[in-house]
Amino acid sequence: MEETKFSLNQTPISTILAWVESGAIAIPEIQRPFVWTSSQVRDLMDSLYQGYPVGYIITWQNPDVRLKDGSTSQGKRILIDGQQRITALRAAISGLNVIDKNYKKRRIAISFNPITEEFRTRTSSTERGKEWIGDIAEVMVNGYDTLTFVDEYVAKNPNTTRQEINSRLNRLIQIKNKQIGEIQLSPALDINIVNEIFVRINASGVNLSNADFAMSRIAVYEKEPGDEMGMKLRKFIDYFAHLSAAPEQFETIAENDTHFAATDYFAKISWLKNETDDLYDPTYNDIIRVIGLTQFARGKLGDIVALLSGRNFETRQNEKEIADESFKKLEKGLYQFTNENKFKHFVQNVLRGSGYDEPGMLIARNAVNYAYAMYLRLLDVGENHAMVNSSVRRLLAISLMTGRHSGSFETRFEQDIKRINQPGDITKFIATLEEQELSDAFWNSTLVDEFDKPTVNNPFWHMFVAAQNKLLKQSFLSKSNLARDLATGEIHHIFPKNYLVKNGYDKTKYNRIANFVHLKNDINVSVSDAAPNKYLSNILSGDNNHHSDIASEKELVDNFNDNAIPQMLIEADADDYADFLRQRQRLMAQMLREYYESL
């Protein structure tokens, strides 16, 4: 018999709000910023008043969990779509504050005019206007005295009738009893199936990540009834990710979430308030992936969700003991991930120590997360710090060069992490990887081909930049400026773009990785659209208009070597472009080999 994937129910808004208030439906996003505008809240109220459909909410039933005594604890429902609508309803009908994008609490009050049946966001005029109900939440309270309200309203607005105002007031209050569709997904569904269903029935086509489901599972966990441990852990993750990117909001969060601010979790991440390094600002997806590897030796987020749900993979039942143990590991992993010394040392000694200076260079986030997981794992098994730093730098480089972080990387990363059990294991592992992945054929052919791509937004270009940074190479046509000292925007074409266009080359040709170089903007302006043999001849002749301090052919050749540029460029024009690209690709690959060996 085919398993039922979901059920469809119609439920009054008042019932849904009561479920949320009691915790029967968990809203994992309740402490995250409310992104709707006040006008969207107003429009939602108007749609409900007019009887228009307002869409479905989607919940995912948390699986029942077997307790030690053999009894079963029923799982909560988790709201996985409809958070903004439910938050809007709680704001407008229940009068509750929302958390804005700056993590500040604020009220969104909606006003209603019974005469015109118009909704507006509350302003001073609707607050004072005799024809307005300034805040509809005030009349939504159970047992509200409608008769007294109608008498007073008609007295202030004599052109109205008691029957008319009473009818419209009751219609407003009946918004609470309007029904919303709830699609309840089965607890037995794999999260990949849950996501597929979510996408198909969500009109906006928004895709949830498996990390979103993991965060939902985390939010509803309770070690003991009512302890809200899961929500605290979720906030631990959420706030660390948020403050990594926006440390200036530390005080705001502390002021507006005093309950969490008093916990040990918040104290553990308080160092972020003074953090200025934005090279690696992890998202909650990054945090869960790293902890999955370090604490569970699991690369697939679906497996982590299952373990947090108490999954026994042998009996296929969910057990409270497994869930409790999994959350103990999660907590340990969070303390480890967010440790100030470990995090800062990883960024400084591994990422910056590999030549990565800008966040935009670290576009292969899976590789960075893998590197941090390996870093923490090596510290855990007692490897010495110098070996940890050099080993993880090399692992990061191997992953980026060979694409081990793409495709079916989860299984590969699981296998890697399980190899590291004691000091010395990493040396053997890297030796094996080098033998398998970094053959002469790789350096002389495979890697060479990677530089034949039509974009610089590519891990191989960023790795070449990191190599120049690490090896302290000069920027192009300058012996006084290092490549790492130039701004991100000072990347230009060796064969000028317009020059190539005039000679019949299109975008896919002139934007090849091998045609890019770090070049100061003022030198690039002076190069203009000239052929390489022309602008290089001008520089060597001492033309000061070119702003280059290169004074001899020897200095030019040295500069070429620092930028992996073949000497044939000195005499090159458009006819030599294809040959130039092939030669430079080989030289760029050679520089990466020099770089790797320096790590």
Number of helices: 28
The chain-level structural class is alpha+beta
Give the tally of β-strands.
Answer: 15
Helix content: 40-55%
Strand order of the largest sheet: 1-11-3-6-2
* First-residue to last-residue Cα separation: 58 Å
Low-confidence stretches: none
Taking the sheet with the most strands, its summary is: 5 strands, mixed
Q: How many structural domains in the coordinates?
A: 3
- Mean pLDDT value: 89
Q: How would you characterize the overall build of this protein?
A:
This protein is of the alpha+beta class. It has 3 domains: 6-201, no CATH class; 210-436, no CATH class; 448-598, no CATH class. Helix content is 51%, strand content 9%. A hairpin with a 4-residue loop joins strand 12 (311-312) and strand 13. Helix 5 crosses helix 6 (162-173) and helix 16 crosses helix 17. The relative contact order is 0.07.
Please tag this protein with its features.
single chain, 599 residues, alpha+beta, 3 domains, 5-stranded mixed sheet, two-stranded antiparallel ribbon, 28 helices
What's a concise summary of this model?
This protein is 51% helix and 9% strand. By secondary structure, the chain is of the alpha+beta class.
